[in-house]
# Entry
Amino acid sequence: MWKKILRPYASVVSLVVFVIIGVLSVIRINFHFLDPFSNGIKDYDVTDIVFSRFRSRQSVIDDRIVIVNVGQEGRVTLAAMLERIAAADPKAIGVDVFFSDHKATSTDSVLQAVLRRSGKVVTSSKLINYREDRQEFDPEAGVDTFFSNYVRTGYANFPSANSKTIRFFSPQENTIKGPAYSFAVQVVRQYEPAAAEQLLERRKKLERIYYTSNENNFLQFEPAQILDTQIDLRLLLKDKIVLLGYNDPYNEECPMLDKHYTPLNQQYSGRTEPDMYGVVIHANIIQMMLDRKYIFTMPGWLSILLALVYCYVNILLLEEIHERYPRLYYPIIRVLQVLEFTFLFFLLSVLFYYFRIKWDFSIGMLALALYFDVVLSYESILNNQRPWIEKLPKLFDKEEEE
# Structure
């Protein structure tokens, strides 16, 4: 049995396959005329199909979170909105708006007074100027101390990456003035501290966002509705999380303001238009924290090990097919590769959809695409009559013949 499993040629071919994969991962070839295509592929993830196609289409409203559109309103109107919202006694108020400067004294004083009285407000900030040598950011920016001295602040920006799609958020970062927390974490700290602490105890630099909702899964209000004194906001907002931010797809002047690509985008490859506003992304993160529905990522070392075993087993399978069907050897392997690609896609999708396990098996898939061609190349090398080639492990039944 062991003689059947432990094949020197399979080890050599597997090694060559992974050397090629390593070289491909290092080399970066940029052809400008291929940019639109390569960017579309680079910004694609298998789990995007799970998010965009397999999730439930039912618009189930999450009654814990309310989204209020701030539109293009000024600070006077915003202060009046906050006054009305605070009077409705929600548990937490998140304001995804930057108060980066101190404007007219009378206007800002009114806004400051509202923030001070509420005691439940979290305002957004942003992290800038990461210092590699110290591995920390400058102090939080985007909010003037005239306001930040009386509220909690949380950075609203998402980790930058080669991908345009927002898949991750950073729960905590270090700044010159100490630790800083994300906007969503600070809101949940106000609403349910235990949920925020559970996230932080995971001690992950980046958390993959488990998207479950779009804007239609939350109660939404416009400024006019909040300011309408005929509406009893207490019945609608008491003990809830209220998020204020830009959420106005019908505004033709700036429809893309604070709008991002997410895995929920129906056009998951070669995306042309962002699909979700920042405040809705924060709402999804908050949902994930409150529900404790985190995505578990397969360790990189385990993915590589499984990919190596998978490649090795496929090479052994070649021998079995070669012995039984020598004339149909080539077409059978090609068909088998297609079937295996299909199986792997569904396996990765099932693991993610039902168990929230993110398994990056791209190395295994690349090995699946390469191994047969490497075997063919190895076979042609063995046919070359040179002394040093004679020492290489022989393929299949040639090993027995000798």
Summary: The radius of gyration is 28 Å. The CA atoms of residues 42 and 335 lie 27 Å apart. Residues 29-41, 398-402 have pLDDT under 50 and may be disordered.
